[in-house]
């Protein structure tokens, strides 16, 4: 993390890294933090994920989009160890992660959030935050029995958690049960808690789902802020405005495979993407004759109805 | 009606050996179910394995009492691993199914004819508590306040039992205030969230299962020693369900709730039982309830009382109503 970098330079650096890259699926990035090779996941006869090659650029915000059922969340689960892939391999910072259990993936610096927020309801907001900290001495059974051995570390963790809560505007809720927070606040808490782990790569599964529009801007700000702090973000999202607003690079999935990649301002007009969202045989704009014909049909129908009533 | 006897037996029940044994079993369940969210329906097996470990070592193999205690403890830990390794990776319900089945298997092995030479069949084992009572510091006589008194053997069992309860409660208190306890409570709420924060959930669940089993097994020792005998049918599934009732009665995930819950449970059971018994003898119910039916009616009334408790105070005696309200969201 470089303290002297400004907001614009991080964004500019991320955009510059992508300059001149092909919009082809699996294009090589200059400095990938995550490299995925031939990941396949089948559920019986259904191939949910079949990704040939994808790289995620370090220090960027990468969006993973695709129509419903494209396998985005399944793909997320594979990468973070919450589900086992049938085939393939992927490396994070050069370290192979296939078959590594979820908690070890998190420890290695790749932390995820969930589509359905998992705030731990009966723990307070502060306890939720403290839980995120790594290498806690007091989490060992025997050392837990000697409060003196973990009190000092706990104070440091609390201080760090307070700073984060302040940043995420949850400081006032510090001692409330997480279950009493609103949907948007829970999303914020989950993100803040993930940051307590000290991740290099933050994986957000639909960060905007179920968040009230007033909170959206603040959440967007926080996601951008992650990049400014030197973290890499990979997120799944349906909200195209958000994708356009914050992402530096977009990966498009459909039916389990990556069909296109590219910068957000051009990817939306890519034919492969339009086909994936609307179907290959979607309606072309109507010609004048077709419009006329439809109008006449509708009028005839209306007249028939009127006569019937009369 | 002899209210004096009813009063004395009721007060004695509140600190009696049954309260002690059930409280220890319930403290174990409180760790597993209350804090870590593990549905262990086989707590009776943990007590049974410990009690039989002690009894068989001493009475069948004529080895020392302390070796028997050690074997009981080791057997409990082994049982916890046997149950935990295949099931703790799965969803919570599987542990419930496996543990309830395992508890029955353990009980049926203890009472089986094939192992009668070792476990003594349905008669169980006796003559193993000699060494325990040999170190009894109380000289023969009765100890207590006024009419509420116990003989020297019971007093010794109760002294050891309540010391074990105090130590167990202190242990739970220290653990649950620590980051270790925080991880446990988080696992109860949502395992996947805890996994995503870099904690080895399987290891923590195993620790909870072993710890809960070991504390429960102390109750098994007390159970065996206070009776100076073990029988397989004492460790049936209803034992586990009483212990669960006690935890819920006191309020899950509270340090003292299993102890107070156990005392209240036994006070209710003894008070209602004796009162009904006396009333039936005095002919208060006419031909409706005879003395021999009182035992069943007692459990009906206790069940009714517990239902009323759950309706009007679902969080238990020590529980926090706000926590229950969170579930309704």
UniProtKB/TrEMBL annotation, chain A:
Keywords: ATP-binding, Nucleotide-binding, Transport. Residues 290-310 are annotated as: Disordered. GO terms for molecular function: ATP binding; ATP hydrolysis activity. The keyword ATP-binding applies. SUPFAM superfamilies: P-loop containing nucleoside triphosphate hydrolases. PROSITE patterns: ABC_TRANSPORTER_1, ABC_TRANSPORTER_2. It comes from the Bacteria. Pfam families: ABC_tran, BCA_ABC_TP_C. Residues 34-280 form the ABC transporter domain. One of its GO terms (cellular component) is plasma membrane. PANTHER family: CONSERVED COMPONENT OF ABC TRANSPORTER FOR NATURAL AMINO ACIDS (PTHR45772:SF9), CONSERVED COMPONENT OF ABC TRANSPORTER FOR NATURAL AMINO ACIDS-RELATED (PTHR45772). This is ABC transporter ATP-binding protein. It comes from Planotetraspora kaengkrachanensis. The lineage of its organism: Bacteria, Bacillati, Actinomycetota, Actinomycetes, Streptosporangiales.
From TrEMBL, chain B:
The lineage of its organism: Bacteria, Bacillati, Actinomycetota, Actinomycetes, Streptosporangiales. PANTHER family: HIGH-AFFINITY BRANCHED-CHAIN AMINO ACID TRANSPORT PROTEIN BRAE, HIGH-AFFINITY BRANCHED-CHAIN AMINO ACID TRANSPORT SYSTEM PERMEASE. The keyword Signal does not apply. It comes from Planotetraspora kaengkrachanensis. Its main location: membrane. The keyword Membrane applies. This is Branched-chain amino acid ABC transporter permease. One of its GO terms (cellular component) is plasma membrane. It is a multi-pass membrane protein. Keywords: Cell membrane, Membrane, Transmembrane, Transmembrane helix. InterPro entries: ABC_transp_permease, LivM-like. It comes from the Bacteria. Pfam families: BPD_transp_2. The chain crosses the membrane at residues 6-31, 38-59, 65-85, 156-176, 208-228, 259-276, 288-312. It is found in: Cell membrane. GO terms for molecular function: branched-chain amino acid transmembrane transporter activity.
